[in-house]
Amino acid sequence: MWLNGEEVPFEDNPRAMRCLKALQRLALAKGESLKFPLEWKLHIVSRNNFPTAAGLASSAAGYACLVYTLATLYGIQDEELTAIARQGSGSACRSLHGGFVHWHKGEASDGSDSIALPVVTSAHWPNMHVLILVVNDSRKKTSSTKGMQRAVETSDLIKYRAKQCVPQRIQAITEAIKQRDFETFANITMQDSNQFHAIALDTFPPCVYMNDVSHAIVSFVHAFNAAVGHIRVAYTFDAGPNACLYVLKEHVPSVLQAIHTSFPNDAAGSVEYVKGIPIDGTASPSSTPTTADAILNGNFTLPTNERNLLKYIIHTKVGLGPQRLTKTDSLLNPSTGLPY
């Protein structure tokens, strides 16, 4: 197996091996002739185009693709696979579907019914976009898995959250998604992110994922929403300092312009600074604000931070889930069986 160009021992990765063995058992259980015998050795190449192990769900993306690819290879892509993907990375079960997805906790003691099911497809809310502000793309000190295990063992707050907060919030945010109610969606998203990091601090020893720049981004979002008079952007932080900002497509240029103002960066004019989906409309640091956002240059001043606090920005949107690529997009050379 090669991960981002580096050869890594597959057998030494217990999570990857669990996924492989579970898929092979599922293939055998079907009792049909396999296109590729299970005894055949595998060459696997995985490559991320965003930071690995930096709190941006790289493991979820990687294990979702691994499970989907092996299931396609063994002819079981139509089976229930989310419980298998979860054995690699919990969040990977959600990444096997496109659109908005609900990971159900389940009731079985063995976790077999803890699966992910779609809420709506990506086509339901096509203008829901995301700006990822990358503060630090290095590997975090405490992995998501270890941090969560420690929280379950030591945090009193997590018990209250699981029983009193999560069920109500899931119900409310699911309805907000179905109704395309951005304000409700945004409020729940930010409150839940804050509570998650409160639990990380309640863990003993504490897991500190956010840093000063993360908190500056939180302050920026609240200031921006106050300036425009309603909630236009929402933040959420996973197990890392990097921010995911939800914003509707039509507001991406104005929000990005405000980010350039509040977080000035010497690289802002570079094509490598804002990556991902091209921005519709002008969103450079020197661009002229629209009439709707004139308030930002009038009666309200956004907080201005030190220069170069952000490494880069990724512009993306709600995705389709795993997609099978063409042969020309393959990461393996079919003649040699080795990476290109």
Break the fold down into its secondary structure elements and pairings.
Elements: E1 2-3, E2 6-7, H1 14-30, E3 45-46, H2 58-73, H3 82-88, H4 92-95, E4 100-103, E5 116-120, E6 128-134, H5 144-154, H6 157-179, H7 182-202, H8 212-228, E7 233-237, E8 243-248, H9 252-262, E9 274-276, E10 312-317
Parallel strand pairs: 1-3, 9-10
Antiparallel strand pairs: 1-2, 4-5, 6-8, 6-10, 7-8
GO molecular function, one term: kinase activity
Pfam families: MDD_C (PF18376), MVD-like_N (PF22700)
Organism: Musca domestica (House fly)
CATH class annotation of the largest domain: Alpha Beta
Count of strand segments? 10
Main sheet record: 5 strands, mixed
Q: Measured on Cα atoms, how large is the radius of gyration?
A: 21 Å
Question: What oligomeric state is this?
Answer: single chain
Helix and strand pattern: EEHEHHHEEEHHHHEEHEE
General shape: globular
CATH topology of the largest domain: Alpha-Beta Plaits
Rounded mean pLDDT is 89
Report the total helices.
Answer: 9
CATH homologous superfamily placement of the largest domain: GHMP kinase, C-terminal domain
Going by CATH, the architecture of the largest domain would be: 2-Layer Sandwich
| Helix amount | 25-40%
How many separate domains make up the residues? 2
